[in-house]
Structure formats: structure tokens, C-alpha cells
Task: structure prediction
Amino acid sequence: MKKLITLFTSAFLLAGVAGCSNPVTTETADNFDKEAAVVVIGAGGAGLSAAVEAADQGAESVILLEKMSSIGGTSFVSQGMIAGYDTQIQKATNVTITYEQMYENLMNNASYRLDPELTKITVEKSGETIDWLIDRLNVPFQPEAIVGYGPLQMMHIIGNEEVKGGFALNEPFMNALQEKGVDLMLETKATEILMNADGSVKGVKVETAEGEMNIGAKAIVVATGGYAYNPELAELLTPEVAGTFGIGHPACTGDGIIMASNVGAALTHTDNMMAVLKDYEIMAEHNGNSNTANVSRFIASPSTILVDGNGVRFVDEKSGGYMTQELNSPIFDRMHKTDYGYVWAIAPKAEIEASEIKRGLDMEFISGETVEELATNMGVDTQTLVETITHYNEMAVAGQDSDFKRTTTLNVLEGELVAVKVVPCEIITYGGIARNEKAEVLKADGSSIAGLYVAGEASANSAYMGFTLSNAITWGRIAGANAAAYTK
Ligand SMILES: Cc1cc2nc3c(=O)[nH]c(=O)nc-3n(C[C@H](O)[C@H](O)[C@H](O)COP(=O)(O)OP(=O)(O)OC[C@H]3O[C@@H](n4cnc5c(N)ncnc54)[C@H](O)[C@@H]3O)c2cc1C
Result:
């Protein structure tokens, strides 16, 4: 019931997705409680960068809205690994990477599903972004870049001995906000973008502990992050991912995507997200989270196979890692075809125990000394599972997976077996609000909404694994600079 109510709310708020071509004008009189030249919504990496850059570029006044009680969002809980080339850190350590290598690496990781023009900018500015964090903000970095998300030594690690990962951005950004007189409003949730009759923005409606307020703005930057904590919205935008659970930062509920959509913004690439396989039962029945429901090592175990809710194998289990679209898409597909909210991972008990893989919340994996016993304990049809595993073992002995062309670790499943239900859970979303190279928000007809900008995970299709933090900061700066220029 809760799911239905939330979905209904999202559907109502998302009226703009389906057909709102004209901006909604909700205010007639300019009775604002507060005003600023630029209002930035969301104080994660993108919003903080937008606010600082807008102020640096001479915006008369900047308000930064944050619905939580502290700044940072996903950016501050991230590992703080940020991709870039030609940085002062790489120059000092004699690491040379070309633009072409970076672009190819990113596009290849993303299976070429990104917008080439926007991605070009993300890559071109990636090094400059890191140098800006160092020179403008005094963000501490590890002395050397490391290899990550491909063969390149492109990952710069934020933090030092005292403060590790994304949280090392906190103090530098807080200092910059203070120095530039940015008005940071914590526990202030933006709920609606207010429009002028001519289709330009004029402000933001917000909720605070004291009640509702209207804040006037000449330009607005939406930097509210993605929707990796809103599975109902994910399903509404892309039915193929129905059944996912949200394991992103709890603030990432897609608020900005909904607000922008309600004033006519187009959304794109919402079928593109990073989902990580998790323990279904812990997620569904024990209110699990990314850590308690972790099954990554079980999935990565050499002999693991996947079968659907009926006990039928359906994929090359080693075609992609436990968080890739190559593996998750067929899993979602199978969940829907079989009408189960999960698929099963099965592995030899000895292999799982030897690797000291434990189930979260001190629970035991389902086990069976024979395939028949395992099927009974799993609650799947015994004959089907016996047939599946017998056939798989015959292919393993022959050294050829004639069904799904698995080429690695095609091992016979024997001895006592263990099983666990798994489901892809969304952790980072790559789709969102459409925009151009100036970070201006676009409508479905390709025209822009005057005064409305977007950056970071709220926006679509210019980043993928390893580049998301870089994308947030780079595009935050672009949005902030263009918003400031617009107000003049
Ligand atoms: C566990 C984890 C680790 C990661 N590690 C890395 C990494 O090492 N490298 C990398 O490149 N990427 C990483 N990522 C992805 C990356 O961190 C994010 O894509 C990026 O930080 C998004 O930045 P953002 O500013 O767009 O959103 P966020 O940092 O999430 O900020 C959005 C902000 O908007 C606020 N907000 C939302 N709605 C409203 C509203 N209605 N009103 C006011 N405020 C609102 C939120 O509270 C939040 O503070 C990781 C992601 C996760 C989940």
C-alpha cells in the first residue's frame, strides 16, 4: 500500500513528464519572503560548485538551499575518487594521459550511451576541475593518481591522513561559501519552481520547519542529485527497472527532476543507472541497506550461477560484474518474465566457506546437501532445478556453455550447495534532466527554459562510473557561471 501511495504522489508531481509543454505559472504576485540573483537547489558537489562559481563570477547574491541538516549529499559520502587528466598531480608524477584516451575509456565503460557533445566537455574539463579544487578551494588530495575504471592512471583521491574520501570537501567548501557570503539555508526543501508568464523562472517554493516560503530568483540551478533512493520514480520513468530497491544516499529522491519536469523540462536516459546486486530477503524483509544486504563476493565467487524464480538458468553469469548493466538488464528482464522480485545465486558451499563469505545480519544462506534438498529449501520446483544443474554440469564437463557462452570458470557444481535470492538495487542514476552545453535546461522541443540550469546527477548523460564526481563539480561550475551571467 505504501508503495502505491508513494507512486501516486510521484505520478501526480510528474505530470510534466507526460505532456506539460507549457510552463506552469503558480504565482502571480511577487510576494517573496527572500530574494537572490541566483538560487542553487541542493548542496552536494554540483550545488556547492555552482554556488561558489556563481559568486566568483560576480552574481549579486547567491542562496544555496539544502534539505538536510548538513551539506554534502552523496558527494561527501563517496570514496572521493575523481577522474582527470593533465592535472598538477599527474604532471608532478610524470603521468601522461591524452584527451582521446580519457574520452574513449569513459565512452567504452558507458557502452557509448552518453551524449558525445556533453561528454566531451566533462572529459575536457576533468583536469581543470581537479586543479580548481586544489587551487581555488584548498581541497587535500593524495600525492599520486591511481589506476581505476579502466587501464588509465586517472583517478585522483580526495583526502589526506586526517580526513578521507568525499568528506574532505566539507571544510574547503564551507570556507568558500562563508568567504563569498553565500546564504546557505539548511533544512530547507525546495518543492516547486515558480515561473513567470513568459516562461522564465522567477523563484522557488520551499518548506522549512517554520512553514512554506517563496524565494525569488533571477536564475536557478537544480543540483538535487539523482533518484537512487526512489525506486518508485525509477519504475515510473523506466518500467524495465521495476522491482529495484534504492541504496543511494537517502536524500536522492529525484526532487529536482520532478520539479523541473513539472515546469516543462525534458528527461532523458532514465534507463541508464548503476544497480548493484543485493540480498533480496534482507532488502525486502529486514529493511536492509547496501552493507547489510551485500552479496558481491557471493556473486563474484568463481562457480556461482544464476537461476530465475522457477529454477531456470538464463544468462552468462560472468558477462559483467555484479553492478553492470550487462548482468542487471537480463536479471530485471527475468524477474518480470517470471513475476518474481528476484533471481537466485547458487554456489558450492565449500567455495563460499573457503572465501569466508558470510550472509548479512548473521543470517545463513539456504543450503542443500543434494540439488533436490536445495530445491525444497529454496521452494522451487525440484525437477526443474535438477534438470538445470545436471545440464549445466554436463556443459561444464564438455567445457562449452552452449546456452549462454560462459567462457570463464565453467565449473561443475557439486557437493553441498548454497543459494541466496538477489535483486539489482539502484545506487547511482545516470539519466535525468536534459540540458545543453551551457547547462541550460531543455524542453522536449529542444528550446531552453530561461533562467533554469542543472548540474550533477540531476542531469542526464554526460558521465559514467569514475566520472560522476568530476561531472558534478565540472557541470556545477558551468551552471553557476552561466546562471551568474544570465542574471546580468
Ligand atoms: C556510496 C557511493 C560512493 C561513490 N563514490 C564515487 C567516487 O568515488 N567517485 C565518483 O566519481 N563518483 C562516486 N559516486 C557517485 C557520486 O558521488 C555522485 O554521482 C555525485 O556525488 C553526485 O553529486 P551531486 O551534487 O549531483 O548530488 P549529491 O552530492 O547527492 O547532492 C545533492 C544534494 O541535493 C540535496 N537535495 C535534494 N533534494 C533537495 C531539495 N528538494 N531541496 C534542497 N536540497 C535538496 C541533497 O540533500 C544533497 O545534499 C558514489 C556514489 C555512491 C552512492
The longest helix spans residues 468-487. The radius of gyration is 24 Å.
